Amino acid sequence: MTNKPFLICVVGPTAIGKTSMAIAIAQRLNTEIISADSRQFYKEMSIGTAVPVKEELDAVPHHFIQSKSIFEDYSVGNFEKEAIDLINEKFFPENIKTKRLDSLVMIGGSGLYIDAVVSGLDEFPTVPAEIREQLNSEMNSLGIEHLQARLKKEDPIYFSKIDIQNPHRLIRALEIIDFTGKPFSSFLNKKSVFRNFQPLFIGLTADREIVYNRINKRVDQMIDNGLIDEAYQLYNYRDRNALQTVGYRELFDYFDGTIAKEEAISEIKKNTRRFAKRQGTWFRKNEAINWFDYRTDHLEILNFIHKKTSN
Length: 311
Hints:
Elements: E1 6-11, H1 18-29, E2 33-35, H2 54-59, E3 62-63, H3 76-91, E4 103-107, H4 111-119, H5 129-142, H6 144-154, H7 156-159, H8 167-180, E5 198-205, H9 208-225, H10 227-233, H11 249-256, H12 261-284, E6 289-293, H13 298-310
C-alpha cells in the first residue's frame, strides 16, 4: 500500500466527455481539478477551446482554466513547474490549518503536458538562434508543408504524435534535429524524476466513427455559439503562438479571403479529427492507462478508483 496521494489523470481524445467525467470524480472524492489542456489556459480563447461552462466550473474548484493571456509566453516547462507547486500545496500544505487533500484530478487531451507533470520534462540542448531563424525563413518562403515533409522524413515517430499544423512545434523539433543530427524523439523519455504522488490514469475511449461524429457536432455547436466572432476579435493577434491551433487558424484563412466560410468550418472538423487521431497515438503508448468506454457510468469508474487507491 502506498502512502503517496493520488493524481487521477482523466485522458482521452477531444470531445469524448472528459470534463463531465472528471467533475463527477472530483465531486465524489471532494477534491479539485487541474486542467492540463494547453488550449484552455488562455482567457481570450473560450468557445474554440471548449472551456467548461460556468455551471461546470462552479461544480468543483478548477485550476489553469483561462489563467493566462495569449500575450504571455507560456511553455510546457512553465506549466510543469506551476502544476507541481500547486500539487505540493494541495497534498502537503505548509499551513497546518489548510485541509490536506488525498487526491487531485488532472484532465486533458494534451499528452505532453500530462506527461510533464507525471514524469518530468526531458532535457534538450540549447540551440543557436540562427538555426530557428533559418527555419522560420524556410516556413515563410516554402510554407508549413515544407516543414511537415522534413519532419515526416527525419523523425516519423515524433511526426505521428504532434499537431503538425502547429509551426511552433514543427520548428522546435527541426531545430533540435538540425543542431544535433539526431531525431527529436530520441531525446524523449530520458529523464527520471521523483514525484511525491502516485498517478492513476483513467482513459475514455470510443470507436473512431463515434469520436469523429462527436467532433463534428461539437464544431457545429461552437459555430452556433459564436466561434467566428471570437476568432475575428483575435484576428489581429494571429501570429501569437497560442493562436496557432485548430479552430482559429482556419478562420483566420477565411478572414484573409483564401477560403470560404463553409470550407473553413470543414477544415476545422478535419483538422480536429486528425488531432484526435494523434491524441490516440500518444495515449496508446502509455500502458498505465486504464481504458473505459466513454459511456461507462461514473460510479463504476469511482468504484475502480476506490479499489486501486485502497490497495
